[in-house]
Write a structure and sequence with these properties.
With 209 residues, this protein is an all-alpha fold. The chain has two domains: 2-19 and 134-202, Orthogonal Bundle (Endonuclease Iii, domain 2); 29-103, Endonuclease III, domain 1 (Orthogonal Bundle), CATH 1.10.340.30. Helix content is 56%, strand content 0%. The protein is built from eleven helices and no strands. It has helices spanning 2-15, 29-38, 44-57, 61-66, 69-76, 82-100, 108-111, 119-128, 139-147, 156-164, 172-185. α2 runs antiparallel to α6 (82-100) and α9 packs across α11. It starts with a helix and ends in a 24-residue tail after the last helix. It binds iron/sulfur cluster (SF4).
Length: 209
């Protein structure tokens, strides 16, 4: 399984040399945290349309903590689930200001459990802005892990540990980005394009989904 995973990663790195986080316009860990909260049940494209205006207006955790709920709701409305997202962003910002001096903490264990931050977001943050290895189990990662036969589980938090047992730490971040890129560009949820897939010969689900 480990050898197959290495070959898959090699081919996907070659197919997607620019694989990386597709949320744009953020410059600080707090801004990426906000963008990630907004991306729940929403496309990165839509989030990327909202964040330039948002980040021009609110530059720090203190700014986000101070914005009234209704104001923020109106500004992020187009990303869907805007009431919950506004509540989470403001609650996160308040904790970051009160407990961490306005700076988002950089370690996974502290990040997990902050308002609006689950394991997926915490892993994305450590991998993308803090330079640590991270396994980011989003919907694409989960679907591909199952199709590729690397997990039989459904719970993303458990899938994270299945893949951690297969991949060396230095590959966790690249693997995560490659899974998302491949899921968005070839291994679609409906009708995956197995005929064009660069890892078809390594996939037990090829032609069977
Ligand atoms: S062969 Fe098909 S199911 Fe397997 S990874 Fe490629 S696109 Fe997905």
């Amino acid at each position: 399984m480990k050898t197959r995973a290495q070959e898959i990663l090699k081919r996907l790195r070659s197919a997607y040399p620019d694989a990386g986080c597709e949320l744009q316009h953020w410059q600080t860990p707090m801004e990426l945290a906000v963008a990630t909260i907004l991306s729940a049940q929403c496309t990165d494209k839509r989030v990327n349309m909202v964040t330039p205006v948002l980040f021009a207006k609110y530059r720090s955790a203190a700014d986000f903590a101070a914005v009234p709920q209704e104001t923020l709701e109106a500004e992020i409305r187009s990303t869907g689930f805007f009431r919950n997202k506004a509540r989470n962003i403001r609650a996160l910002a308040a904790v970051v200001v009160e407990k961490f001096g306005g700076e988002l903490p950089s370690d996974l264990d502290t990040l997990v459990g902050l308002p609006g931050i689950g394991r997926k977001t915490a892993n994305l943050l450590v991998a993308t802005v803090f330079g640590q290895p991270g396994i980011v189990v989003d919907t694409h990662f989960k679907r591909l892990s199952q199709r590729l036969g690397f997990t039989k589980l459904e719970d993303p938090d458990k899938i994270e540990f299945d893949l951690k047992a297969i991949l060396p730490e230095e590959d966790w971040t690249d693997w995560s980005h490659c899974m998302v890129f491949h899921g968005r560009r070839c291994c679609y949820a409906r009708k995956p394009d197995c005929a064009a897939c660069p890892i078809a010969t390594l996939c037990p689900s090829c032609g069977k989904v």
